[in-house]
Each structure stands twice: as structure tokens, then as C-alpha cells.
């Protein structure tokens, strides 16, 4: 690694006039024929990069050193953090697997890296005078990647980093004597309040200077209160301040050659330095991991909305090419590149869900909480339902288990954080945008064949299923640092989870059956058609009586009736009793109905009698009511109606042949409906009969 600027040991170089240094059109042709023009352009150049310890910054440093080996020096503006100096931090960053390929190709690559201590939120970027002098003398190209990308960042801090730091960097750039290009990394969602987004800088929601001055004197509590009103149509302070930053870039660019790159949702690498490289939980990566671990089961997203993911290497290739183009062609105004895939090679969230789940089932993550099975829905209520059933309920059970086993409950806490994170992402997964990407296409056409291969950002070639598979495997290998050799053990763990789920579901089903369904005729009527029909098609064709046997013994395997078709209710009852002896009459009715639904009182009675011959009118009436509830079918407004109904039943039990017998029967029935306490009442009863 090159020594820090403060040490004053900067590799000497001959300053070149940016205008004469750029490839002429003739030179471009020669360069293309001999070697890639873009890497030729970076030869001998000093490049300043902010955000080099971040996701995209790292990939930029790696690609620049690998594909432009003649680059002179990389000045990386890095803040001290957690007691580590910028020197130590870059040292740690370079240990990342990301640099393995470069390490192999060029073990001395670190010598070109010069860390510069800089806290971007401080006045003057907290640069020493010496560092300012060296940077202003040497830097040819600036890539400004640093930003806070947190969606919940307090407005003042987001403004300080994303807007004010950009402003300060631009004024430093103005002092640079041989700067060729200033490339600012923005986001495709800076203007997410619009549906169609062109490659232009839109008017800012508020004049950035005014906002900066107003927020200076306000305390944090007031700012927090007015933030929602200030950001208006923007979903968070990140996209809002990125919109303001674009405006600042335009205002302060002066005579600088400036380009703005607007990537959409930056994901794992597609090809370089190797497929699937990713090192953080941001954006979809965290969602994929949570789904792969079986924690996330539901999320609000539209199946049909375009998932505008863009691989990180595509963004970096475009950025380097834009650096070259901006320096060489010096466009008159700030050139904006929408770096997106949706308009060129669209892929949808529903498809992503499918491929993510399929990949994690084949290549499971270690120690999954449940089997991966996430579903996306755009319906708020359905999502809330699944959150309750698939997130909160299992979390409660698991925490209960942890408590009982003397451990600290943690699942509910994890779910609360997950819900906060996905709540912030839903805005981006529930709708889609149209980005114009003419400048990206124009730039591609400007590249030589060689450059197009070396700095490939042609997303038409992107094979999504393959990319998503590599992405998921990348989260496993590089974010979670899991060993691919442990996949068989992870698969075994998933099988164990599946068996636990089957057992749990069976117990739950049996419990629900016994407590609710087996005790209620109405519930049975509702549930019977919903219960799984376990019979095969051949059985259905062969014998209708067989169809429902499985309903009565769903968890205990096939009943004997499957082997020897049962044609009588009695036979059927025998099977039933073996499985689950319980409340004979109710069972009998249920079984009978399942075989031969009984619509007449008579049929019903016949079944009833076969089980428990009825000797009392009351018992008989209960059966009668269960078949054709008298109050429901024909509301009985008078005891007389009831008596008529009862008599019909009564007759079927004990037919009466004498008038006297009839009167006695009637009286008994009548009494059971409305006991009579007066002689007058009795006489009225008899008269009625
Ligand atoms: C199969 C389904 C397919 C459908 C799939 C749809 C995906 C739909 C993606 C849309 C994506 C749009 C992206 C816009 C395009 C840009 O503009 S890109 C810039 C993107 N910026 C981000 O993604 C930053 C978002 N993150 C944040 O704002 C903050 O991390 C959060 C989410 C507010 C959490 O903050 P915090 O509570 O202070 O904690 P933090 O330490 O940051 O993280 C807490 C936990 O959340 C986890 N976490 C962080 N981010 C995430 C995440 N994205 N997901 C899950 N967990 C996360 C962390 O791993 C951590 O877990 P533990 O390690 O503690 O177990
Ligand atoms: N990731 C994505 O999906 C997308 C990102 N972008 C844009 O790309 C750029 C890079 O994003 P990404 O790499 O993902 O972000 P990261 O969060 O991974 O990296 C942010 C970088 O900024 C640096 N930084 C933050 N605060 C300061 C500070 N006060 N002083 C000095 N350096 C600081 C961080 O350094 P440190 O290590 O010290 O924290 C880190 O190197 C951003 O401008 C972002 O807006 C745009 C679209 C999508």
C-alpha cells in the first residue's frame, strides 16, 4: 500500500494537461485496435475515491486495479472508525475475498493505494492542509461513492453526508489543477416520486442551500417532527437527500466535467471478480437471507412489478466507462446515466421469489429456523394475516421454548427488526418505475469491442435465473461465510425441520378435530368439503362409498375399508370405531352422511335407531332437530306446530292405534314443549289435539 499523504511520500508523476491527455478520435481507433481504450485512459492517472470501504467502493477499487493495471495511484478518503485509522481500515478491507483474484494476478496491487484520513461530515472534509495540497495537485478523476444509504437516517445527518459533503468535495474538485472528470454516484430512486424518469436532473423539492441553512439552527427534535412534511412524496431521507445532492452537483459543477450514475437496486456481482460476490445485508440481500433461513415467510411486494436489480459489477463497469467518456468527450452539461435493467431486460419480483426459494431449497443455509417458504403478496390484509400466523405465532412458540429451556428469548426481537427492515423496503417492491437509459446505450456504443468485453454493462446478456442463483449462493458464501461443503448437513437439517412440521401439523389437526369439528354438526357440515380427499382417482371411480373413508382417519393411515370396500353403514362404523371410538350416535350420523347423505327425517331415524333405538320422545326430537331443525326450517310460532312435528316423529316410534292412546301421546308431547300447569290449559291442549 502506498504511504499516506500526510507522510508526504506520494509517488511522483508528470502532470498532464487533461485536454491533451485525452484520446483523440484517431487515437481512440488505434487504442481500440491495440488495447482497451478505457484502461489506456486510466494509465498514469491518479484517482480519488470516497466510500472505498463500502460495497460499491470496494468493487470499484478492485476493478480499477485489475483492469487498469497502469493506473498510477488511488487516493481513498477513509474516516477513522472504532479506533481504527484509515490505514488499518483499508488494510482490513483489502483482506476481503473480493481481492483474491487481484492478489493472484498482481500481488503488489496494494502499493498503489494511498489512504487519506477524511471525515466527510466535517468542515473541509477534515482533510489536513498537506492532504489538500497533494490532492489538488495530483488527482485526475474523482469517484464520489460515499453516502449514507440508511432509509431511517435522521434528516440532518443524511443532509450532512449526502448533500453538504458532496458540495464540499465539489469545491475541493474546483481547486484541482488537472481534474478530468468528477463522477457522482446517485440512485435511480432519487426521483422516485415520478413514474417515468429521464436522464435529466429534475428541479429539487426545495432549494438545497435554504434547507441547509434552516436546519443549521433547529434542534434534532424539531427536525424529526417536520421531516415527514419536508420529504413529502419521497419515502425516506435517503432518496430525498440524494435528489438534493444531484441538484447540488449541477449547481456547483462549474467548469468541471461531471457525470452522474444512477444505479437502481445494486445486487451481487454478475461476473466479476467472480459471480455472486456480495458482502452486506442491504436491499434485497437481507430479504433473501431472511427467506433462506426460513425466518421471512411473507412480504408485501407485487408479483408483477419489475424488480430493478442491477449487478454491482455492471454499475462499476459503467462508472469507469463514464469516467473515461466524461474526461475524453467533456460533455457540455452534466450527463446522467440511469443504470437500470427494467427497460432492457425486465424481471419481476414474483420470478425472483420463485428462483430465490428454489435456490435455497437446493442449497440450504445452515441452521435454518424453518424450511424456506416465503411468499410475496400485494394485499395488505393477507400479508398481515401471514405475519401473524407465520411470523409472530412461531416466534412466540420458539421464545416460549427458549424460556422453558432456560435461555433468553430472542425470536420476537429478530422479527420486530425484520418487520422494520421490510417495512422500509416495501415501497420499492410494490410498484415499478420506467427509466430511460439512452445514455447507457450511447456509452456502450462508444466503447471499442475490447472495452465492451472488459467493462461489460450490457444487461441484455444477463440470464436472470442463473444470476439469482449465484446471488443466493453468494449471500451464503460471502455474507454468512458458510462452507459449501456443509450443504449435505444443511439439507439434513431441513429434513428434520420438515418432520417436525408434519408432526406439529398432525397434532394440531387432531386437536382441532376433537375440540371443534367432532363436537359440532354445523362445523362438520362446513369442514367436510374442505378436508383433504386422500383417495385415489381409481377408488373414486370404483366405489363412491370409499371416497370419504379417509376423512375419518386422515392421520392414522388408510382404514381397512380401503382394502375391502365397505358397502354398509354398519361396516363403515366398524372401521370408524377402530380408528377413533367416540360418541357413537354422533359418529354414526357423520359416517352415514358421508356415505349417503340423508335428506329425509325417515332416513335419519333409521340410522339413529340402528345405533341407539330411541325410546323417548325427547331423544327422538333431538334427532329430528339435528336433521331438520324445526326452529330454523319452519319457525314454530305455536306449541301446536311443535306438537304436529313431534307427533310425526312420535308415530314413527310408537304408532298409536286408539283415540285414547293418541290423546295420551299428544299430551305427553305437548307437555315436553310447554308444560301445562292449569286445568284450563290442559283442556285447551286436548282440544287442540
Ligand atoms: C423472497 C422474497 C423476494 C422479494 C424481495 C423483495 C426485496 C425488496 C428489496 C427492495 C430494495 C429497495 C432498495 C432501494 C434502492 C436503494 O436505494 S439501495 C440502498 C439500499 N439501502 C438499504 O438497503 C439500507 C436499508 N437498511 C436500513 O435502512 C437499516 O439497516 C434498517 C433496515 C433501518 C435497520 O436499521 P437498524 O435497526 O439500525 O439495524 P442494522 O444494524 O442496520 O440492521 C439490523 C438488522 O436488520 C438486518 N437487515 C438490514 N437490512 C436488511 C434487509 N434489507 N433485509 C433484512 N434484514 C436486514 C441486519 O442484518 C441486522 O440483523 P442482525 O445482524 O442484527 O441480526
Ligand atoms: N447499495 C445500493 O443498492 C445502492 C447504492 N447507491 C449509491 O451507491 C453509493 C455507494 O453505496 P454502497 O457502497 O452500497 O454504500 P455503503 O454503505 O456500503 O458504503 C458507504 C461508504 O460511504 C462511507 N462513508 C459514510 N459516511 C462517511 C463519512 N462520514 N466520512 C467518510 N466516509 C463515509 C462509508 O465508510 P465507512 O466504512 O467509514 O462507514 C462507506 O465506505 C452511494 O452513493 C449510494 O447512494 C445507489 C443505488 C443503490
From TrEMBL:
GO cellular component: peroxisomal membrane
Domain Fatty acyl-CoA reductase C-terminal: from-to ranges: 391-482
Keyword terms, alphabetized: Lipid biosynthesis, Lipid metabolism, Membrane, NADP, Oxidoreductase, Peroxisome, Transmembrane, Transmembrane helix
EC number, as in UniProt: 1.2.1.84
InterPro entries: FAR, FAR_C, FAR_NAD-bd, NAD(P)-bd_dom_sf
Record SUPFAM superfamilies: NAD(P)-binding Rossmann-fold domains
Membrane-topology annotation of the record: Single-pass membrane protein
Domain Thioester reductase (TE): start-end pairs: 49-318
GO molecular function: alcohol-forming long-chain fatty acyl-CoA reductase activity; alcohol-forming very long-chain fatty acyl-CoA reductase activity
Keyword Nucleotide-binding: no
4Fe-4S listed as a keyword: no
A Pfam family matched in the record: Sterile
Similarity annotation: Belongs to the fatty acyl-CoA reductase family.
PANTHER family tied to this protein: FATTY ACYL-COA REDUCTASE 2, MALE STERILITY PROTEIN 2-RELATED
Protein name per the record: Fatty acyl-CoA reductase
Organism: Hemibagrus wyckioides
Amino acid at each position: 500500500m502506498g504511504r499516506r499523504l500526510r507522510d508526504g511520500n506520494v509517488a511522483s508523476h508528470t502532470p498532464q494537461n487533461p485536454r491533451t491527455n485525452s484520446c483523440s478520435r484517431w487515437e481512440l481507433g488505434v487504442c481500440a485496435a491495440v488495447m482497451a481504450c478505457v484502461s489506456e485512459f486510466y494509465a498514469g492517472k491518479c484517482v480519488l475515491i470516497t466510500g472505498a470501504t463500502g460495497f460499491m467502493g470496494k468493487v470499484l477499487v478492485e476493478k480499477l486495479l485489475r483492469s487498469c493495471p497502469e493506473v498510477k495511484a488511488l487516493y481513498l478518503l477513509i474516516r477513522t472508525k472504532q479506533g481504527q485509522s484509515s490505514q488499518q481500515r483499508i488494510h482490513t478491507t483489502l483482506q476481503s475475498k473480493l481481492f483474491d483474484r487481484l492478489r493472484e494476478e498482481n500481488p503488489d496491487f496494494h502499493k498503489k493505494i494511498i489512504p487519506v484520513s477524511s471525515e466527510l461530515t466535517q468542515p473541509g472534509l477534515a482533510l489536513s492542509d498537506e492532504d489538500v495540497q497533494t490532492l489538488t495537485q495530483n488527482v485526475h478523476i474523482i469517484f464520489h461513492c460515499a453516502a449514507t444509504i440508511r432509509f431511517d437516517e435522521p434528516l440532518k445527518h443524511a443532509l450532512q453526508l449526502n448533500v453538504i459533503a458532496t458540495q464540499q468535495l465539489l469545491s475541493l474538485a474546483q481547486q484541482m489543477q488537472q481534474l478530468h472528470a468528477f463522477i457522482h454516484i446517485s440512485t435511480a430512486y432519487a426521483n422516485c416520486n415520478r413514474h417515468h424518469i429521464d436522464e435529466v436532473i429534475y428541479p429539487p423539492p426545495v432549494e438545497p442551500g435554504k434547507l441547509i441553512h434552516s436546519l443549521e439552527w433547529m434542534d434534532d427534535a424539531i427536525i424529526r417532527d417536520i421531516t415527514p412534511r419536508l420529504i413529502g412524496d419521497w419515502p425516506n431521507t435517503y432518496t430525498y437527500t440524494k435528489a438534493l445532492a444531484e441538484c447540488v452537483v449541477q449547481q456547483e459543477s462549474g467548469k468541471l466535467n461531471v457525470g452522474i450514475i444512477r444505479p437502481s437496486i445494486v445486487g451481487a456481482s454478475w461476473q466479476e471478480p467472480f459471480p455472486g460476490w456480495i458482502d452486506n445485508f442491504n436491499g434485497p440481500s437481507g430479504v433473501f437471507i431472511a427467506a433462506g433461513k426460513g425466518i421471512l415467510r411473507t412480504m408485501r411486494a407485487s408479483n408483477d412489478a419489475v424488480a430493478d436489480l442491477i449487478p454491482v459489477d455492471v454499475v462499476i463497469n459503467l462508472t469507469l466507462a463514464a469516467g473515461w467518456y466524461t474526461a475524453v468527450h467533456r460533455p457540455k452539461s452534466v450527463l446522467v446515466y440511469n443504470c437500470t435493467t427494467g427497460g432492457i431486460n425486465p424481471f419481476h419480483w414474483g420470478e425472483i421469489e420463485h428462483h430465490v426459494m428454489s435456490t435455497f431449497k437446493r442449497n440450504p443455509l445452515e441452521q435454518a429456523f424453518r424450511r424456506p417458504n416465503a411468499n410475496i403478496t400485494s394485499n395488505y390484509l393477507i400479508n398481515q394475516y401471514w405475519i401473524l400466523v407465520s411470523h409472530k405465532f412461531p416466534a412466540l412458540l420458539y421464545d416460549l421454548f427458549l424460556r422453558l429451556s432456560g435461555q433468553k428469548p430472542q425470536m420476537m426481537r429478530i422479527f420486530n427488526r425484520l418487520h422494520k427492515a421490510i417495512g422500509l423496503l416495501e415501497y420499492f417492491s410494490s410498484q415499478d418505475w420506467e427509466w430511460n437509459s439512452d445514455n447507457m446505450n450511447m456509452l456502450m456504443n462508444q466503447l471499442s469491442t475490447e472495452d465492451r468485453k472488459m467493462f461489460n454493462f450490457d444487461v441484455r446478456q444477463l440470464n436472470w435465473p442463473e444470476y439469482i442463483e449465484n446471488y443466493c449462493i453468494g449471500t451464503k458464501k460471502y455474507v454468512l461465510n458458510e462452507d459449501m461443503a456443509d450443504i449435505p448437513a444443511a439439507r439434513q437439517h431441513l429434513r428434520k425441520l420438515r418432520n417436525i412440521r408434519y408432526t406439529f401439523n398432525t397434532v394440531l389437526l387432531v386437536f382441532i378435530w376433537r375440540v371443534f369439528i367432532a363436537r359440532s354438526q354445523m362445523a362438520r357440515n362446513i369442514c367436510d368439503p374442505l378436508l383433504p380427499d386422500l383417495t385415489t382417482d381409481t377408488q373414486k371411480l370404483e366405489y363412491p362409498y370409499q371416497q370419504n373413508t379417509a376423512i375419518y382417519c386422515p392421520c392414522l393411515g388408510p382404514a381397512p375399508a380401503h382394502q375391502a370396500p365397505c358397502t354398509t353403514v354398519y361396516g363403515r362404523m366398524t372401521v370408524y370405531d377402530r380408528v377413533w371410538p367416540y360418541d357413537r350416535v354422533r359418529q354414526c350420523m357423520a359416517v352415514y352422511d358421508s356415505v349417503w347423505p340423508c335428506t329425509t327425517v325417515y332416513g335419519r331415524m333409521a340410522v339413529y335407531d340402528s345405533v341407539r333405538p330411541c325410546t323417548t320422545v325427547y331423544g327422538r326430537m333431538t334427532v329430528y332437530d339435528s336433521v331438520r331443525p324445526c326452529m330454523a326450517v319452519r319457525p314454530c310460532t305455536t306449541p301446536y306446530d311443535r306438537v304436529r312435528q313431534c307427533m310425526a316423529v312420535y308415530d314413527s316410534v310408537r304408532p298409536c292405534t286408539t283415540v285414547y292412546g293418541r290423546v295420551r301421546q299428544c299430551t305427553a308431547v305437548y307437555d315436553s314443549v310447554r308444560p301445562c300447569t292449569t286445568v284450563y290449559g290442559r283442556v285447551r291442549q286436548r282440544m287442540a289435539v
